[in-house]
Amino acid sequence: MKIFEKIAISIVLVCFLGTLFLNSKISSLFFFLSVTLLSFSYLIFGFTLFKIKDGNSYFRVLSGAILGITLGTLLFVLDMPKGVLLKTIVAINILFSIALILNWLIKKQGFSKEKRMIFFRSVLIALITSFFAYASVHNSQNRFFLKKISGKNTSLTYNLLMFDEIENYDAFMDNENYLEAINSAKKSVEYGKKWRKYDTIYYEDFSGTYEFLSKAYIQRGNKLYTNRDYLSALKNYKSADSVLKHKEHIPKYPKATQSHIYWNRWNLGKTYDRLNDFENYDKEIDFLLTNYHKVKDTIDLDYFRIVENVASNYAKRNVLDESIRLSKFSLSILKKDSLNNLPNYRDTYLNLAKNYLVTDSLKNAKIYLDKYSEIADVNDCKILYYNSLYFKKVNIKQALEYAKKTCECIDSENKPNPNNQFRAYLNLSQIALENSNYVSFKKNLKRIKSLVPQTYNQESNISKINNTLGYYYRLKGDFTKSKYYYQQSLNYYRDANEYDNYKKIIIELKIALLNDELGIKNNLQLINKKVLDLLSTYESTTPSLTMMHNDLASINTGSNIKLSDSLYHITLAIHKKYNLKNLPKIGVAYNGLGINNLYLKKYPKADSLLLKGKNQLEAFYGSNQNMNQTINYLNLAKSKLYQKDFLNSDKYLEKASITANNCFPNEKTIYESYILKLQGDLVLKTSKDRVAAWNNYNKALQIAEKYLSKEHLFIIELKKLIKRNTSK
After folding, report:
1. pLDDT digit string (tens) for 220-232?
2. 602-624 CB burial, b ≥16 within 10 A, e <16
3. Which of 278, 406, 610, 615 has the fewest CB atoms within 10 Å, measured from its CB?
4. Domain extent for 361
5. Angstrom distance (rounded) from CA 443 to CA 340
6. Claim to verify: residue 10 and residue 133 sit in the same structural domain
């Protein structure tokens, strides 16, 4: 070995160790210079470095060339990722070393000292360069070693850093730390871009970093979606979509990437559904249904999930006929793919039952509830809940029993879901109201309020409570408090979207009715337009919608009798069409028609209609059980009084008083004031006893002043009656 070679190798070793352990830039520089010089020396001056005879000149030149070129590759593999050409050169040296080994094994005695020297150099260089050329960058220890030697700002360094971040990404994904995983994936993309500038052969490997980034966005979106943070989930799904479609993302497996894009669009669609962004939801669904065949060969459970989601979305948008059609179609898909899909059958049966309940197609609703019951789990509380909703429209007493059982069932679960508990107890409270069980209502209300902080959509749930309280105080006749709670509920819908706008209008209509009771003037023209425009948006009128017809008819009673009558008649016609009988809405409609005839002084006709209303209400609630009955009895008493049928007038006043006391024992409601006023009128008509009449009017005034303003026409009328009967 020449002195120059020894010096060069010594410098290489010293600089190598200095670079590895001291991370010295000077050592790194001298290392590269020494390797460069040694490589050129082997390549150009190989014949002078090896003492071989002239007869081996070809061998000498070949040895120098192979050793020089191979050692030279070390400079490249330390600067940029290992390309095919570099690996081939190193492989040639390895083959050369193997050839020398075979030559040595065959000709041990004839293997000269010079050849041994070449052999040792060849093997040593092969070992060193093969490590750098073939070492897997997926191994963190290899990357650590390579980064130490390669220095900074080289293509290899960026490649190694890219894989460092990918390894960090994997760890973060395993720990479900998706935000950090996104950051690591972003860094891997940035390092990959710098690597890519030098090495386009591995462009697809760099492009794979976009797949990692998109996956992190999707997983984070899924987690946020599960936690009901839909806006944040949407942002992540959109980011994933833009990453997957990025112009620099040239996928290694295009079909797999196409599938990722497709199912991320499904994520977007579901999230738009949750956010009630129906315009964007429709766009995503159109894409999914149009392109399904590109990612799936057959219609299976995935297609079922898309169709059933659309069915649920249409139900939310009150496109109920189409929702029912799609749910039935999804059942046909389940029959083709019937393995382990009982949960899907249950969900679809339940969706159909809900839709039929909304449309008051009670026979069909019962069919699907029974189907659900057949495959439900033993301790399934849902069937109890939906049976309570069914009987709420059929038998209010039986509905109350199912509502109680639902609450007991959910409370007995190992880990009761507060959202399910809230829904169940709210339903129980509302049914208790219909049963005039106000003690139970107040008790359940406390339970409901305590559950709100544990639920999702707390503001929405508070709005539901306020809405229920508004109804309670309206029944009680405390119109001021009722209006307050309805207004609190309305605040939630101030910025209502298309989906929630109808709820907003319904509450506004309730408030308008209360204004009417409180003697506050309404913009009746605007209210009529809003409600009628809303009703015109429905494809068909179902019995459930007729509550709006009744409320709008009520506010027009006496002022626009023609419109009022037509709306009440729609209620009756729709219930007849659906073969529904003995329901409160029918009773309220007959009562409203009777009041309109009282205004027109058509008393016999009013009697007939009011009696029909009485029969409907008694058939549903029983005798003297609900405040709607109190109102009906008051109107009958008034009609009989106008006809001078004093005996029956007194009879109905007595029934009104009993019913009011049954509903609110030991409380003086506004209806008590109305009863006392009519009793005073009756006394004047029958016995002419002005003192007794005065007492009734005075008591009525004392009660009324608690609920109505001084300017209210009823208060003014009572004061006039008191004054008139005092002075005489």
Report:
1. 999 999 988 999 9
2. ebebbbbbbebbbebbbebbeeb
3. 615
4. 298-376
5. 42
6. yes
| Cβ–Cβ under 8 Å, residues 188 and 173 | no
Q: Are residues 177 and 210 in the same domain?
A: yes
CA distances from 633 to 623, 624, 659 (A): 11, 10, 9
Read off the pLDDT of residues 341-358 as tens digits, 9 standing for 90 and up: 888 999 999 999 999 998
709: left (phi over 0), alpha (psi -120 to 50) or beta: beta
Instruction: Say whether both 247 and 344 belong to one domain.
Output: no
**624-637 pLDDT per residue, tens:** 888 999 999 999 99
CATH number of the structural domain spanning residue 346? 1.25.40
Give exposure, 552-564, as e/b (b: 16+ Cβ within 10 Å): bbbbbbeebbebb
> What pLDDT was estimated at residue 26?
54
The Cα–Cα gap between 182 and 213 comes to 6
Instruction: Give the model confidence (pLDDT) of 490-527 as tens digits.
Output: 998 887 666 678 889 999 999 999 999 999 999 999 99
Judge if 351 and 235 occupy the same domain: no
686 occurs within a structural domain: yes
Longest Cα–Cα distance of the chain, Å, equals 154
Query: Mean pLDDT for the chain?
Result: 82
Tokens of 364: 């069909």
Cα(100)–Cα(497) distance, rounded to whole angstroms?
82
**Residue 100 tokens, joined:** 């020398």
